[in-house]
């Protein structure tokens, strides 16, 4: 009997010890499993158990550097009831995961730098409890650095503090991709192929607070589902053309964008979206009217704000039908009120108890501001514009202003354009249609007129864009600055400037040869030599104008399409080269004219007593000095301020630099055709020749003949021949030019 009692006691003691051990395993400290540089091909409960771990005690499971892993038995995770975090990285053969089973304790799910092709289905990880009390949520879902191309429907129907899909291959975010999800922070950073966001991509996610779309290729941003957004990041995304109005974001506090002009849209909402701003002002006026005479203490703050919205509603829309493909969709719809572009559902207002309880457990609740930045209290109506912290802020190169900036500048530029275009077209028309022998000066004048005409066309393009975008340029800034038009305008500007400088230098050298070595005909520049020289000038000008199109500096850095921004050494070298070539040209021109004056300084002695010829040459030199003076007046201010900006000490911003652009930079384009050609007797002679050839306006031709060639008399020239026709004047153009002190062309 005693033996049997002893046996019973032993069995009871064994069962008690065993139960106590199991309880310790269940309530004791969890186990962290780390498999580093493992060769496993299948991750299962059996493989983990064989590694010496008890499944019930595992809280953290990490698989690091598993080059052969291609399958994960996700159903076995249900055998790990205490699992809180799952981390898999560097598993290139892991392409897909089956839908995860319920895992109530899971808080972190991370699969990074692996071969996943689509987002795993996490919708059943945390099933809702019956009483909807203390709902669990994921702290982080990190799927960074995989090969994910698509987001399956309802795969991310989760409650999560943050979801990261960074640096994948996602090309599109479809409609309702996050429907019924409750995500606070969502990031798509580094998805360089992401070009399309459906208009309803974020619909159904009313809790989104932070959104990151940096380093993507999106061109627009939908607003549905982003009403509660607080922080928006779209950095290093040059493809983004347009940002929505600030009225679409009720609670936006910070915006980190790519382009300066997008921040102008937030700073000037009345100019960014005038129609929406007008509606908004109407709504504010209606609210003020509704609140007149109301006592502030008549109702609680919460109910009063909600009632104000319902009193001033302009539209009443039925709640949007749920996605028909959703197996859990409800068929009934509730009414909604639209106020300031936001839909408020009666069952899902931020005032509901369930939402308040959820926010306390999930993340900090947002500050209610239903009037979109304006605070309205019945009996005490006040306005206080909400400021959004936006970067990059408008700077000296991209201010929040129109292309021309000031009204007087906008009017002045058209006068400059008219003078430059009309003058240079007139010169080209006369020189190119004249059938007389082509001379070197005439050849050079054609190139000079063409380069100055390009300057006029550049200013014309800027003026047209300014008229089209008057008052709201930042709405057109992307299409202009990053479009073909700005590239063409910038190319014309640099090309015309370089070709004009080069041509004027050659013109000066040709005059120097012609005047200094007048008796040495063999030292004159021949037409063939001039053609070769100008071919080199064209090639150089095209090269300098084409480098910004190839990535050296950039025409898109400012609204006036000039390569003024210096980001690296290559940009600085390029801009320095532009200034150096202009400086060398100026020095060459000045030296040549000093030599011309020195050669003419002896009056008529150098020409064997031909004082009249020397005076004529001096007159020519004085006129050429006037021409070069206008060019120096044109280039010197631009060069000075350009050099100071290149040295890192800018003395003038783009707003004031536009004055230089309109009044100084095109000065030679306006003055050259008149000073070089139109105001000379040779041009008038060629112009009359052209008119005589047409057979019209004969009275004007006859009048010019009488004024230019008075009839001979017996006292002055008894044996004078008959009056030569106008077309024969070209035979003696050099003699006539020198005799009258004109520039031969």
TrEMBL record:
TM segment ranges: 408-432, 444-465, 499-521, 533-552, 572-596, 625-647, 659-679
What subcellular compartments does it reside in? Cell membrane
Tell me the ranges covered by the G-protein coupled receptors family 1 profile domain, including all copies.
423-676
Primary localization:
membrane
Signal sequence region:
1-22
The way this protein sits in the membrane is described as: Multi-pass membrane protein
Stretch list, region Disordered: 314-339
Alphabetical keyword list: Cell membrane, G-protein coupled receptor, Leucine-rich repeat, Membrane, Receptor, Repeat, Signal, Transducer, Transmembrane, Transmembrane helix
What InterPro entries would the database entry show?
GPCR_Rhodpsn (IPR000276), GPCR_Rhodpsn_7TM (IPR017452), Gphrmn_rcpt_fam (IPR002131), LRR_dom_sf (IPR032675)
Family to which the UniProt record says this protein belongs: Belongs to the G-protein coupled receptor 1 family.
Protein name per UniProt: Lutropin-choriogonadotropic hormone receptor-like isoform X1
Taxonomic lineage per UniProt?
Eukaryota, Metazoa, Ecdysozoa, Arthropoda, Hexapoda
């Amino acid at each position: 009997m005693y033996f049997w009692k002893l046996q019973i006691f032993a069995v009871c003691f064994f069962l008690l010890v065993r139960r106590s051990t199991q309880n310790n395993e269940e309530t004791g400290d969890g186990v962290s499993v780390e498999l580093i540089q493992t060769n496993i091909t299948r991750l299962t409960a059996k493989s983990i158990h064989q590694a010496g771990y008890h499944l019930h005690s595992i809280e953290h499971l990490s698989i690091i550097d598993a080059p052969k892993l291609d399958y994960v038995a996700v159903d076995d995770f249900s055998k790990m009831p205490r699992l809180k975090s799952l981390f898999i990285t560097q598993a290139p053969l892991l392409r897909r995961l089956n839908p995860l089973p319920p895992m109530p304790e899971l808080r972190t799910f991370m699969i990074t730098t692996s071969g996943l092709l689509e987002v795993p289905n996490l919708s059943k990880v945390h099933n809702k409890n019956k009483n909807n009390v203390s709902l669990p949520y994921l702290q982080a879902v990190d799927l960074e650095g995989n090969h994910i191309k698509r987001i399956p429907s309802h795969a991310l129907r989760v409650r999560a503090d943050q979801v990261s899909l960074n640096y994948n291959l996602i090309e599109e975010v479809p409609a309702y991709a996050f429907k019924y999800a409750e995500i606070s922070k969502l990031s798509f950073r580094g998805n360089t192929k992401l070009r399309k966001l459906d208009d309803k991509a974020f619909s159904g996610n009313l809790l989104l607070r932070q959104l990151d779309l940096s380093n993507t290729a999106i061109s627009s941003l939908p607003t549905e589902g982003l009403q509660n957004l607080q922080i928006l990041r779209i950095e290093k995304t040059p493809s983004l053309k347009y940002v929505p109005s600030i009225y679409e974001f009720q609670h936006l506090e910070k915006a980190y964008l790519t382009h300066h002009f997008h921040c102008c849209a937030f700073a000037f909402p009345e100019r960014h979206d005038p129609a929406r701003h007008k509606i908004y002002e109407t709504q504010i006026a209606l609210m003020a009217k509704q609140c007149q005479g109301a006592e502030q203490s008549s109702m609680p703050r919460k109910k009063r704000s909600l009632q104000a919205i319902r009193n001033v509603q302009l539209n009443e829309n039925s709640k949007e039908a749920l996605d028909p493909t959703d197996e859990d969709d409800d068929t009934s719809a509730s009414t909604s009120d639209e106020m300031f572009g936001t839909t408020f559902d009666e069952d899902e207002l931020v005032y509901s108890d369930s939402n308040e309880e959820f926010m306390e457990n999930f993340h900090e609740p947002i500050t209610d501001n239903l009037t979109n930045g304006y605070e309205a209290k019945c009996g005490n109506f006040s306005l206080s514009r909400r400021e959004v912290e936006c970067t990059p802020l408008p700077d000296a190169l991209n201010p929040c202003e129109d292309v021309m900036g000031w009204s007087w500048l906008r009017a002045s530029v058209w006068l400059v354009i008219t003078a430059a275009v009309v003058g240079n077209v007139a010169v080209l028309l006369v020189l190119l249609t004249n059938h007389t022998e082509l001379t070197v000066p005439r050849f050079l004048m054609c190139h000079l007129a063409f380069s100055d005409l390009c300057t006029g066309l550049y200013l014309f393009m800027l003026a047209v864009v300014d008229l089209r975008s008057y008052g709201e340029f930042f709405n057109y800034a992307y299409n202009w600055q990053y479009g073909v038009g700005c590239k063409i305008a910038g190319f014309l500007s640099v090309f015309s400037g370089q070709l004009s400088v080069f041509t004027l230098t050659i013109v000066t050298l040709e005059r120097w040869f012609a005047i200094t070595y007048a008796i040495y005909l063999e030292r004159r520049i021949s037409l063939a030599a001039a053609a070769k020289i100008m071919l080199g000038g064209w090639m150089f000008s095209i090269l300098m104008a084409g480098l910004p199109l190839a990535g050296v500096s950039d025409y898109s850095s400012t609204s006036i399409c000039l390569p003024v921004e210096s980001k690296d050494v290559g940009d600085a070298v390029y801009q320095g080269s532009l200034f150096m070539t202009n400086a060398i040209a100026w020095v060459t021109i000045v030296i040549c004219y000093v030599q011309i004056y020195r050669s003419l300084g002896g009056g008529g002695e150098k020409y064997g007593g031909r004082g009249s010829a020397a005076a004529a040459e001096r007159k020519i030199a004085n006129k050429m000095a006037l021409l070069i003076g206008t060019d120096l007046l044109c280039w010197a201010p631009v060069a000075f301020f350009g050099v100071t900006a290149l040295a890192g000490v800018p003395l003038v911003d783009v707003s004031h630099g536009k004055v230089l652009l309109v009044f100084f930079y095109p000065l030679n384009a306006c003055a050259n055709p008149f000073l070089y050609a139109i105001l000379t007797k040779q041009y008038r002679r060629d112009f009359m020749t052209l008119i005589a050839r047409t057979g019209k306006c004969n009275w004007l031709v006859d009048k010019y003949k009488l004024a230019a060639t008075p009839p001979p008399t017996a006292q002055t020239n008894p044996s004078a021949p008959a009056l030569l026709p106008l077309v024969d004047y070209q035979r003696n153009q050099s003699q006539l030019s020198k005799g009258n002190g004109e520039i031969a062309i």
